[in-house]
Amino acid sequence: MLKILIIANWKCNPTSAVEARNLFKAASEGIEDAKNVEVVICPPFVYLRNQELGSKNQGFKLGAQDCFWEQKGAYTGEVSPTMLKDLCCEYVIVGHSERRRYFGEDNDTINRKLKAALEAKLKPILCVGERHEEKEQMKEIVEMQLRECLKDINPTHLAKIIIVYEPVWAISSEQGDYCPPEYAFGAGLIIKRFINNNYGKSAAVEVKIIYGGSVDSKDAVSYIKEAKMDGVLVGRASLSGGEFVKIISSIAAISNFS
Ligand code: PGA
């Protein structure tokens, strides 16, 4: 059965391991009856120590929010994909708009990180999306990000990559504007067509495309049913155990999705 992806991006939160443990616990309780979803939690690096925080075997997968483009070496402060894999991470976010904005990451950097993540057998979660002032050129921006971030990627690897359409203007810490599902649907089509035209039909069928940007328990289902997304990336709403569990159960309740 095709599982709908629900990815939590905690960003630089919470500020204590006790709070992190509570969030892990709430999510794992919320997953108990949710059969058709794959929940991935992406906490800050320090909370990936699953044995200590009780995140192992709790029904969800772990992901990191970033990684370096080399596997090891003299790179002070960096965390490599191999280290993440060793910590039982299965996923890693690359190219989040906050990495682009605050840390100057460009498509070339993201491409290197994506390749390093694949090399370490992690599943990259690649974020693309236009800024508010680029709305008129959404198609061109998204296609350019895809072209440059996916440069020299083997088509067979597309099945392991999750592409997040995340319009920057819809992220809660930015304008937080509502992105109508039909708009997200259009962006999803643009991404699918790009993959089909550049990587072939089977890559386009297998690649997962999800939506991110102010998703909450009221609209999560609309991005699956109306926007035909394969899942959602949840930021702020994943920091409330109750709200995140509501998102999980609302999506798990959809029985006949396509
Ligand atoms: P948001 O964040 O749900 O708080 O808008 C999503 C993200 O930036 O990953």
Spans of at least 5 consecutive residues with low confidence:
none
Bound molecules: 2-phosphoglycolic acid
Helix content bin: 25-40%
In one word, what is the shape? Answer: globular
Q: Structural class, judged by helices and strands?
A: alpha/beta
Computed CA radius of gyration, to the nearest angstrom? 17 Å
Name the features:
single chain; 258 residues; alpha/beta; 8-stranded parallel β-barrel; binds 2-phosphoglycolic acid
Characterise the protein shown here.
It is a single chain. The chain has helices at 17-31, 50-53, 81-86, 97-103, 107-119, 138-149, 181-199, 201-206, 220-225, 241-252; strands at residues 4-9, 37-42, 61-64, 89-94, 123-128, 162-165, 208-212, 231-234. With 258 residues, it is α/β, with parallel strands linked by helices. Strands 1-2-3-4-5-6-7-8 form an eight-stranded parallel β-barrel, surrounded by five helices. Strand 7 (208-212), helix 9 (220-225) and strand 8 (231-234) form a beta-alpha-beta unit. 2-phosphoglycolic acid is lined by residues 9, 171-172, 212-215, 233-237. The site of 2-phosphoglycolic acid (PGA) has 12 residues, from strand 8.
Quick rundown:
The protein has helices at about 15-30, 50-55, 80-85, 95-105, 105-120, 140-150, 180-200, 200-205, 220-225, 240-250; strands at about 5-10, 35-40, 60-65, 90-95, 125-130, 160-165, 210, 230-235. It has about 260 residues and is an alpha/beta fold.
SSE order and pairing:
Elements: E1 4-9, H1 17-31, E2 37-42, H2 50-53, E3 61-64, H3 81-86, E4 89-94, H4 97-103, H5 107-119, E5 123-128, H6 138-149, E6 162-165, H7 181-199, H8 201-206, E7 208-212, H9 220-225, E8 231-234, H10 241-252
Bound molecules: 2-phosphoglycolic acid.
2-phosphoglycolic acid binds next to strand 8.
